[in-house]
Amino acid sequence: MSDDSDFDEIAHEKLLESIKTPNSTRKTKLKKVVKKSHIDAGALLSHITVSRASTNKAKQSLGIEGLENPESSTPASSSGKRKASIENDEQNSKKKKKKVLKSKTLIPVRDIEARKRIEGEIAFKDLKKEVTGNWTELVQSNRVADQLIFPLVKPEGLLWGNEKSEPKLTEKEQAIMKATDIKMAKERLGQMQRMRAIVGIQEAKNRYLKKIKSKGYHRILKREKRKQLLKEFDEMVARNPEKAHEKLEELDLQRVMERGSLKHRGQNQKFKQMLEKHASRNPEVKKLLEEHLRLGRELKSKVAETQENSDSENEEAEVEGKKKLGIHEILKDAAKAAAKDSSDDQISSLFNVDDFLEDTKLQKLTLAQMRAKKRLENEQFKKKTTETEESPMFEEEKAWDKEKGSKKKLKKRKGTMTKKSYVKEDYDTNHPLTYEEKVKIAVEAAGVNADEQRMAEIEIDPRKFLELNAADLTQVSSDFVEKMDQFEEETANVINEAFKDDDVVGEFEKTKEDQKEREKVKDIDLNLAGWGSWTGPGTTENKRRKNFMVKAKEKKRKDGEKNGIIIKDNIGAMDGIGKIQPRSLPFPYSRVEDYEAVLKQPLGLEWNMEKMRDELCKPAIVVESGRAIRPINKKELIGEKK
Amino acid sequence: MKIKVISRNPNTYQRETVDQRNKIVRNFNTPADPFRAQTEYTRALNATKLERVFAKPFVASLDGHVDGVQVLAKHPSRPSTILSGSRDGQVKLWNLPSRSCIATLDAHRGLVNDISVDNSDGNSFVTVGQDSQLKYWKIPSTIDNNITTPAHSIALEGIAYGVSHLSYSSDFVTCGEDISVWKAFRETPLRSYNLGTDTIHTCRANPVEENVIVGAKSDRSIFVLDTRQDVPLKKVTMKLRPNKISWNPIEAYSFTVASEDYSLYTFDMRFMEHPIQSHQGFTSAVLDVDYSPTGQEFVAAGYDRSIRLFKSREMTSRDIYYTKRMQSVLSVLWSADSKFVMSGSNEMNIRVWKANAAEKLGPLTKREKQAFAYNSKLRETYKNHPEVRRIANHRNVPKHIFSAAREHRVIRDARTRRDLRRAKAAGLNEEESYLPATQKSMLGDAES
């Protein structure tokens, strides 16, 4: 081996040296000499052509820097470009040797191999230091990292693989890029959002205003509108009287329409209720109400006419006269007036308009008069109603009011009766029913609900109810019971059929017995063949055996008396759950608690929120398929560090 | 028999919503679920079983070579392109997605010893062959049988056995009788190192540090070289021949050696006295090794007609791939996107395998991703439970591997017993006398 030959040379060298220097002991080992002797190392190092920091340091530590020839250090091998084989190097060294020979008297024996070895060792130390310094931290952090996402350093540029080539854009593409500039787009988006918000707010406001139910608010609103309208109208009169005329006509038409639509009527709650509940069923009441309404309309719509016909106090008298008349007569009059109205209305209104247009003072006056009239009429009407309280109409109304309550009760009754009928309770027809009587009176008087009543009578017949229901009840229950019995039998049969062959209880008992037998503590038999087998008077086989038997203690079983249960007494570590439990602490853990804590951490979605689960289950290595992962790039990393 | 169950129509108690989403009522202070551990253990067990059920690693076979595939190489930036060189001197370029050969070159007479692709921009590659030729080829941007002649060709003095590009550079080193550093299109090397009379049969440049090279000589030694220095830095000798070397791409100082003694050894370049980890499991010589680009795992090719995947710091292999017709594997490769491994074997086929046998290929939905992540986490957490471990580690291996492994186990045990007895006889303590496999693999003391 080459190594052996090396050793020989060194030994030889050592031998020579020891001869030269009488102080050195022969016992020192060869290797140590190579490493330790100052003279040797210094001499060898003097020929190192590489000028490196550590080499210099090594030289310093060896105390040979001063000795070195300044010329020898200059032809340092600038590593990258110099093309040098070992042979060339040797030649160089020979030249240097000659130089040294010239300068120095004492010439140590140089071994090229040994020199190379030391050179290599020093360079290796350098490399070791460099590599350790550069990479240890990164490698260690990568090794302990929870997750490594590859590529470790994100490449710049859009495309991975040819990062250098930036995509060149055509003019069209640039225009598109400009059009799709994110800043602009964001601005535009912001504007749009603002606009949308404003529209939304306005819409919401409108919706809110529409929903306002306050009468006061609407009154104010209307008044404002009216004012506005009048203002416009005034202006129009001044500017364009013909148009104003048209406008007035239009307004009047509107008023007529509004009045005709009954929109302003029947707004109070009581009236509504009456309309809903009774007028629809009772034609008489309906008629009455209609008349009532018509009267109201008449009284209100006729204001202009009355004003036109009579602007004196006799009107009041007339009204009083009317009031004294019966209500039918009033209604008749009203109807007639209305009939007349319909024909005269337009003419009169036109006439009125002309008057109106003539004088504004007159307008005001008429307005005031109209209002006064209206108020007066309302009062009169009220009085009338109070005066005519004892009229049949109101009598009827009361009855209706009562009936409303009683109907409810009636309905209830029906319900209770149907229930009661099951419990065989007699139905008392003579039960005092004040409400019912009243209802009957009212209904008969009005002639309503005749059919309904008949129906109710049929339904409420107690005997029918009782008989029918009682029979049903008994029949059902007996049927049900029978069926239940039948069902139970059937199921029992089915079950018996299904488990015909297996005697579950018996089997269980048997296994229990087996278990008991197996777990029973057995006697220890210490009999040995030949021992104690002597015979004599009084010794029987049985007695003899007993001498060598150690009787086992009776052990009480936990499940001894309990039926349908087996409790195993002696379970080994590996019998039960031990089979699936880890037997020793796995590698990275040093304490059982740590390992248990890791196992106790739930991972599933049932015990964690989704984010937590994702965090817990994140893969240790993340790679993108189809994307090349390149080794760590030193230049990039060092660039980053700087 | 009619079975009655309590069921409620959600419509009866849930309010109707516009987008069919109802509020989920949660208790944020829920009591601990008493069956949590049981449930998750069962899930882990099922996940492990399913992982084995779905473990179908074989993806494709690339056939076209007419002799054993001696060497495989990957393109550094194009994960879909791989190169292969066979024993008859042919080099083929393959497109993985289409599983087709995109170029065939008659590169050398005699076998192709090594291929290496340019590390700076990936526009060229270098081949060395048994015919003492070094050939420099250009890679066009689209390859379609358009590579015919080398861009440059150099006749070397001796046979070059290996070639490897320096880190992020288009310079490369060749090894054979000596180590030479080359620049593209130069007739002579930049520098060369004479390391003695022994042939250097493999060398690999460090993928991170641009100046560091490791290689193996036929005297069973591994050496470290710094291209800035004139002399080799370190040399250690193993008991059996190191066949191939691969650097860890994200750890600048660790590399793994495929050894003739049926195992692999991971070295720390700074402490070469003995390897820091041995990787066992092969039943015959290990012929090639290649690291995953993530640096977490490596794949190794065995003369025993199998390939094994190892985690970079674990002793036993995490998986073994084989097929009935695959002969001894001469070369392996881990794809650049770390999803596949390739094996080139003596019976002329290149086989593509999934790096994770049970992995589902193709795009995954979010829920699938989450489910897979959950399952793999469960497997990881419960991997030390006996049942889970038994299922996860069980592999059906070919009979020859099974019996060989048993035989080796017997031999190993016998040796251990013998060593123990010898130590006892010598009056040594058990612990003192114990030598780990990593130290046993080295010959004597470390020497420079």
Automatic annotation (TrEMBL), chain A:
GO cellular component, one term: small-subunit processome
Biased composition (Polar residues): 70-79
PANTHER family: U3 SMALL NUCLEOLAR RNA-ASSOCIATED PROTEIN 14, U3 SMALL NUCLEOLAR RNA-ASSOCIATED PROTEIN 14 HOMOLOG A
Comp. bias intervals (Basic and acidic residues): 395-404
Composition-biased stretches (Acidic residues): 308-318
Family: Belongs to the UTP14 family.
Highest rank taxon of the organism: Eukaryota
Protein name, entry field: Uncharacterized protein
GO biological process: rRNA processing
Species assigned in the record: Caenorhabditis angaria
Keywords recorded for this protein, A-Z: Nucleus, Phosphoprotein
Subcellular location: Nucleus, Nucleolus
Annotated spans, Disordered: 14-33, 61-99, 301-321, 383-412
InterPro entries according to UniProt: SSU_processome_Utp14
From TrEMBL, chain B:
Sof1-like protein domain boundaries: 355-440
Subcellular location, record wording: Nucleus, Nucleolus
The keyword Transport is annotated on this UniProt entry: no
Swiss-Prot/TrEMBL WD repeat ranges: 62-104, 105-139, 322-363
Keywords: Nucleus, Repeat, Ribonucleoprotein, WD repeat
Domain of life: Eukaryota
PROSITE patterns hit by this protein: WD_REPEATS_1 (PS00678), WD_REPEATS_2 (PS50082), WD_REPEATS_REGION (PS50294)
Region named Disordered: 425-448
Pfam families to which the protein is assigned, alphabetical: Sof1, WD40
GO terms classed as biological process: maturation of SSU-rRNA from tricistronic rRNA transcript (SSU-rRNA, 5.8S rRNA, LSU-rRNA)
Entry's Gene Ontology cellular component terms: small-subunit processome
Principal location: nucleus
Similarity comment: Belongs to the WD repeat DCAF13/WDSOF1 family.
Protein name: DDB1- and CUL4-associated factor 13
